Amino acid sequence: NYGAWSAGPGSSHDGSVTEVWAPGIPVSVEDVPAGFSSSTIVYVSSVLVGSRRKRTSITGAMHEWGSMLRKYHNSTPADRMSDVTLTKIGYQTDNGAYYCFCRGNCSATLLSKVQELKDMGVPMGYLSFQGAGASIGHKGAPWCVERWSADGGLGPNYPLPLEEFQKALGLPLQLYAPYFCPINDYFNSTGSRNWNGVTSDPSVPGCNDYNFWDANSNNSKDFYDWFFAKGTAVGMVSFEPDFMNQNRNCVPDFRRSVDGAARWQRGMADAASDAGLTIQWCYSTPSDVLASLEMDAVTNLRASGDFCYGNSWQIGVSSLLLSALGKAPSKDTLWTSPNNRTEIPGCSWTPDHEQPGAELHVTLALFSTGPVGISDGIGYTNASLVESAIAADGTLLKPSRPATLIDSLVQRRCSVTPASDGAREGGPLAEVLVTHSSDSESENGESSVRAWYLISFMLSDDMIICTDDLYPYVGGTERDDLAWRRFDRGISCQDGAYAVFSGCISADGDDIFLPAGDFSDTEKGSNYKHAVTSVYRKCSSGWRLLGELSKLVSLSAARFPRIRCNGSGVTLTVVGRPGEEIEVTAIDPRGFVRVKTIALERSEEYSLEFQTDSDTTSLFFPRWNFH
């Protein structure tokens, strides 16, 4: 079901074909130049490696296939690119955001909102102009650009020029331009620079109301070099074009040429690389996702629909393709509270905007490994919820891989015949996503998994998770040493308590139990109440490191870049900013909870060690001040 792997309707751009994806040369291409070649790679994940059998899975096969493609295209994974939108929390003005249609003095409003967040202890790392302030006017295709925000196009509600606004803000910007309106300052204009562009054809099926201009394939690089220079001059570090589906399918010059769309995309990406920018593609097709393998500047692509319309929590399947190809899935903007149930123009109120949904959106955005962009109004941000996802400086404490739907649910949904045991396995609406934390720096070039995380909601019944649904795979007798706990900000893990009896963690080898959902008041979003279940390994010494239990991802590599088990305990590296306090929790070999609060005095890496003394179980924390 490749159709589900693209944000949007899960169909061809004109809606005529659903639930499919047809790779190769499309029928719209009118001629193929001499010497052109096209290759198709089919990958089969085998259970045999030489004479040995290995465990295979849907998620495993996808990542093996993706790894092969990344190597073939020499593609750099998104997590190795420098992209502030993937490492810091940000504030957005996207469709559905509180200030998407800002009125009054919006310069002052946004400056006040960002300052409020800083004062609350949740500092932003960037601001994204994806709605309000994107450009002057939208006479043509939805959100088209007449004059870009970086080019004096903020509009009358922004009295501060963008350069002055950015300096007052003190944050880098992500700027937005999906395509250009029929009347614009860049193509078919009388402006100082009139570029040779291409136009869409709204008569093409699926392109009704999409009347716009783009740079053409031949001058794409030159145009975006010139265009991005305007953005970098006002603090832009990231760029978002939108409606990539329509850009590809509604422009005759791109549809009729075998590589026209790809050359247009490559010109944009190459210009971004030269300018030191990163790119988010929104509403891309799977073909666009595959094309991005040759464009490292494209670090993340939208995996959800718009927050405005509801259901932007549906990322479990679409993220699987992006994760396999080394790109970060982008879940759309979100609110951290119901924001007084304020209705945004064009956005009908949906139950996933209630408080249970707000909490779910924060969790899913963090676990996607893509951007986490909040968009509450002044006075409406739930700071405590945001703090569970970030360090004190706004760094995202995220997992090492995008969360994706567990294999058993993928298999059930892709089956021709629906499973008869759906009720026993959580019900037909069940959503269970899995991801994990690994060392960012590991020995022998291999990543060491330290914990798995399961996000579950809309389960009609309690559900037992088989360890086969954990990816990477858990093998051999290690399954008997796994233990799990439910996220509760560490309340159940008190220092000195016996871990199992106090409810801090399960007994070794216990079934991984996920609770049924709450369907008591679905109009108020009760069915979006979710659980985060963490599954932990045990060191050979008997120690089990749980990490920072006030955070959703308790063993994030962004906080603990290195963890090593040894014969007498476990050592780890901790990072944070000066003045930050971090609680680290572990279970000692006798089963008792050990908690220490660490006060960081300077911003650098520190070593920490849990060690078993020859006579008694004790803790050693070198180079720290405790209180």
Strand composition percent: 15-25%
Principal-axes geometry comes out as globular
From the N-terminal CA to the C-terminal CA, the straight-line distance is 54 Å
**Poorly predicted ranges (pLDDT <50, ≥5 residues)?**
1-10, 419-424, 442-447, 614-627
Number of DSSP helices?
Answer: 13
Strand order, sheet with most strands: 13-12-11-10-7-4-3-14
Give average pLDDT, whole number: 88
Describe it:
The chain has 627 residues and is an alpha/beta fold. It is 19% helix and 19% strand. The strands form 8 sheets. An 8-stranded parallel beta sheet has the order 13-12-11-10-7-4-3-14. The longest helix has 16 residues, at 58-73. The protein is globular.
Topology of this protein?
Blueprint: E1 48-49, E2 52-53, H1 58-73, H2 84-87, E3 90-92, H3 106-119, E4 127-129, E5 135-136, E6 147-148, H4 162-169, E7 173-176, E8 197-199, E9 213-215, H5 220-232, E10 236-240, H6 244-249, H7 252-255, H8 260-275, E11 278-281, H9 286-291, E12 298-302, H10 318-324, E13 328-330, H11 355-367, E14 373-374, H12 383-387, E15 404-405, H13 407-414, E16 431-438, E17 449-457, E18 463-465, E19 483-486, E20 512-514, E21 530-536, E22 544-547, E23 562-566, E24 569-574, E25 581-587, E26 593-599, E27 606-612, E28 617-620, E29 625-626
Parallel strand pairs: 3-4, 3-14, 4-7, 7-10, 10-11, 11-12, 12-13
Antiparallel strand pairs: 1-2, 5-6, 8-9, 15-16, 16-17, 17-21, 18-20, 19-21, 22-25, 23-24, 24-27, 25-26, 26-29, 27-28
